[in-house]
Amino acid sequence: MNTDCLSCPADNTNPVATDNGPDTRFLESLIGYNARRAALALIGHVLPRLEPLGLRVVDFSVLTLIAHNPGITSRQLCAALDILPPNLVGVVRALEQRGWIERRDHPSDRRAQALHVTAAGAAVQAQAQALVSAAEHPDVTHLSEDERTQLIRLLRKVYLGNRA
What is the pTM for the complete model shown? Predict the structure, then answer.
């Protein structure tokens, strides 16, 4: 981690804010701060696209994983999205009540249930996927395709470590 922000003031004599706003140089030297700001910027474009479908980002993520991984279990969803099982229960229940997913007996584990999208769920997911993809257009992200690929690779390295 960069604990020596070379562009940051060495003392507290500088004003907290200027006419241009607060001094955020130290925060802007942090990976987490920049990743969060980028995520918020993108989510600001994604939410209005998902809203007409009645989807939140977490709903879209769960529905997409189920659509791309027929028979996935709740445990696998939790691991893939790094969410706790109690937080997933309500999402799965809501998607099921809307008729977008269904539970089936797991073929090899009697204790688990396999999750599958329904035809209606597949249609909604495909539409949502196209809308979310459009929200990551270069006009929105200000990244070239090579920069986008590199950024995704680097972010995956941060959260996956050696598994990236």
Answer: 0.83
**30 vs 32: CA distance, rounded Å:** 6
Pairwise CA distance, residues 19 & 71, whole Å: 56
Q: How far apart are CA 59 and CA 81, in angstroms?
A: 11
To the nearest 10°, report the CA torsion of 163, 145, 46, 77.
-20
75: nearest Cα among 64, 90, 86: 86
Q: What is the pLDDT of residues 20-35, one digit of tens each?
A: 889 999 999 999 999 9
Question: Top-level CATH class of 23-158?
Answer: mainly alpha
* Segments in the chain forming alpha helices (H): 31-50, 57-68, 74-81, 85-97, 119-135, 138-141, 145-160
Which DSSP symbol is given to 54? T
Element (H, E) at 116: strand 113-117
Is 64 in contact with 100 (CB distance < 8 Å)?
A: no
- Angle between helical axes of 57-68 and 119-135 (0-180°, round to 10): 120
What is the number of residues in the chain?
Answer: 164
Q: Where in the chain are the domains?
A: 23-158
